[in-house]
Specification:
This is RNA helicase. With 238 residues, the chain is of the alpha/beta class. The chain contains ten helices and eight strands. The chain has an eight-stranded mixed β-sheet with strand order 1-8-2-7-6-3-5-4, with helices on both faces. Bound molecules: adenosine-5'-diphosphate (ADP) and magnesium ion.
C-alpha cells in the first residue's frame, strides 16, 4: 500500500472511490496483447502519462471512471485503449450491428483528433471506427454506421441526427465515453448528452473526462456513472 501511495504521489494523481485498482508504471504492466503494445510503441508512447497510469487499470477492471485532468495530459489513450480491449473481449463480436464503443466529444476538431487516435490504435484489430461529426459527408457517415462500425466517435448533435436517420441504434453499446464534459455543457449540449445517455443500456461501462467539475458535470456523473473510480491529476478548479 505504501508503494502504491508513493507511485500515486510521484504521478501527481489523487484517487477516490471504492477499492480503486493500483496504478501502473509501464504499458507492459497492463496485460495488453502484443499487437496493441506494438501500436503504442509505434505511436512513440514510452510510458503512461499520469492519467493513463491510473485510469487505464481502473477501466480495464471494468469500473466506471471519472477522469479530471487538463488538456494535454493524454486522456484520449486513457479511454481508447481500454475501449479496444473491451470490444475485443466481446464473445459475439461478429454478430449484431451498431457501435459497441461510443465516444462523445463537444466539437468537430476534438472528435477528429479522437477519431484519428482511435483508428491508429484499432488498426491491429481491423475494427471499424465511424465518424459522426460535422465537416464530413453525412451520407458517408450514414454508410459507415449502417455498415456495422464497432466504434463511433461523435459530437452529440450529429450522432442524434444519424440515429434519427436510422444509421444505427445503441442497442449493442456497452462502452460509453464522454470527453470534455465541461465544454459539452458550456456549449449547451446537455439535452443531447442526456438523450444519448437514455439510449444506451444501463449496464454499460461509462467513462467521463472533464478539465473542471462544475455542478452540472457532477450531476451527470451521479446520473451516468456507477460507483466510479475518480482520478484527479494536478490542481483542478471548479
Ligand atoms: P488530452 O486529451 O488530455 O488533451 P491527448 O490525448 O490529446 O491529451 O494527448 C496529448 C498529446 O500527448 C498527444 O499528442 C498524444 O499523442 C501525446 N501522448 C499521449 N499519451 C502519451 C504517452 N503516454 N507518451 C507520449 N505521448 C503521449
Ligand atoms: Mg482530449
Amino acid at each position: 500500500h505504501a508503494e502504491v501511495n508513493t507511485l500515486r504521489r510521484q504521478l501527481g494523481v489523487r484517487i477516490a472511490g471504492f477499492d480503486p485498482p493500483r496504478p501502473v508504471h509501464t504499458f507492459a504492466q497492463l496485460g495488453l496483447d502484443g499487437a496493441l503494445l506494438a501500436a503504442i510503441k509505434r505511436a512513440g508512447f514510452d510510458k503512461p502519462t499520469a492519467i493513463q497510469a491510473q485510469a487505464i487499470p481502473a477501466a480495464l477492471s471494468g469500473r466506471d471512471v471519472l477522469g479530471i485532468a487538463k488538456t494535454g495530459s493524454g486522456k484520449t489513450a486513457a479511454f481508447v485503449l481500454p475501449m479496444l480491449v473491451h470490444i475485443m473481449d466481446q464473445p459475439e463480436l461478429e454478430k449484431g450491428t451498431g457501435p459497441i464503443g461510443v465516444i462523445v466529444a463537444p466539437t468537430r476538431e476534438l472528435s477528429e483528433q479522437i477519431h484519428k487516435e482511435a483508428r491508429k490504435f484499432s488498426k491491429p484489430y481491423n475494427l471499424r471506427v465511424a465518424a459522426a461529426f460535422g465537416g464530413l459527408s453525412k451520407y458517408e457517415q450514414f454508410k459507415d454506421l449502417k455498415g456495422g462500425s464497432e466504434v463511433a466517435v461523435c459530437t452529440p448533435g450529429r450522432m442524434i441526427d444519424l440515429i434519427k436517420m436510422k444509421a444505427c441504434t445503441m442497442h449493442r453499446t456497452t462502452f460509453l465515453v464522454f470527453d470534455e464534459a465541461d465544454r459539452m455543457f458550456d456549449m449547451g449540449f446537455e439535452p443531447q448528452v442526456r438523450s444519448i445517455l437514455g439510449q444506451v443500456r444501463p449496464d454499460r461501462q461509462t467513462l467521463l473526462f472533464s478539465a473542471t467539475m462544475p455542478n452540472k458535470v457532477e450531476n451527470l456523473v451521479r446520473d451516468a456513472l456507477t460507483s466510479p473510480v475518480r482520478v484527479t491529476v494536478g490542481e483542478i478548479g471548479a
